[in-house]
Amino acid sequence: MDYINSQRVDRAAVLLATTDRSIAAVAAAVGILDANYFTKIFKKQLGTTPTQYRREKKAMLGH
Predict the structure, then answer these.
(1) What is the DSSP-derived secondary structure letter of residue 13?
(2) Buried (b) or exposed (e) across 6-30, using 16+ Cβ within 10 A?
(3) Helix, strand, coil shares of the chain as percentages rounded to 5?
(4) Rounded to whole angstroms, what are the CA distances from 48 to 27, 40, 41?
(5) Residue 31: left (phi > 0), alpha (psi -120 to 50), or beta?
(6) pLDDT of res. 51
């Protein structure tokens, strides 16, 4: 299960950085229907929340 969640978080990170989909929509797109659970595993793996991750990536890209 850890491997699957790792793959989901990696895919979600790409979607967060490249789309304007909501956090819930990104979570659903990678197969996690509970946005709170998604945030928990995302933060556990990457050390930041999905919202913070998106802000950082957009800032890096100059958006």
Answers:
(1) H
(2) eebbeebbebbeeeeeebbebbeeb
(3) 75, 0, 25
(4) 15, 9, 10
(5) left
(6) 97
User: What's the pLDDT tens digit per position in 47-62?
Assistant: 999 999 999 998 887 7
Give the C-alpha distances (Å, rounded to integers) separating 15 from 27, 28: 10, 11
Residue 23, CB-side half-sphere exposure with 13 Å CA sphere: 16
The Cα 22–Cα 1 span in angstroms is 24
37 token code pair: 């659970």
